[in-house]
Putative restriction endonuclease
Amino acid sequence: MVKPMPKPMSVAEYLSSERDSPERREYVGGQVYVMAGGSSRHNRIAGNIHALCWQMAQDRSCRVYQEGMKLRVGKEGGYDTEQAFYYPDVMVVCGRPVPDEYYETEPCILVEVLSPTTASIDLREKRLEYARIPSLRTYLIVDQDSLFVRHCWRDEEGHWQQQDLTGDGYIPLPCLGGQLSLPQIYRGVFE
């Protein structure tokens, strides 16, 4: 996200206009932000994670999305200023589908690949917003310029934990019954 569009919108206006928009736009509390395009590294990392999660999801009733599906955060029917719609780089949903085919509400895994224009938002604002999602178990923040993943997860008591991984670390993905390794995530990225 860079800077908001000049005119605030309601959730209904945003959802209606988003269907015809040539660019992806995120919605936060009435403000709409146009999304910048990602680098080739960013896309390869997101693609690797998507492919690995998709393979694991085949044995479960889970859906895996890469960048094109919106995530709705906030209480349905709440004030527009309390609503947000984001486009996570990768999203895994293992619950029931929501009635709206244009967004999901109950992810178990969210992944954001850091870029210069979104790093501060991914590390602070989105992390706080995502932590409010009851279904979310794993949030990965992935650096595109070095072998580094911040693994955030909800423990058995519902508290958030964090581990920074470099090199050959492994990341458990309980809702998919598998794990990711850093070499898998970064395959073909720095070659």
Summary: The two ends are 28 Å apart (CA to CA). Residues 38-70+86-185 form a domain with the tt1808, chain A fold (CATH 3.90.1570.10). The first strand starts at residue 25 and ends at 28. The CA atoms of residues 14 and 178 lie 36 Å apart.
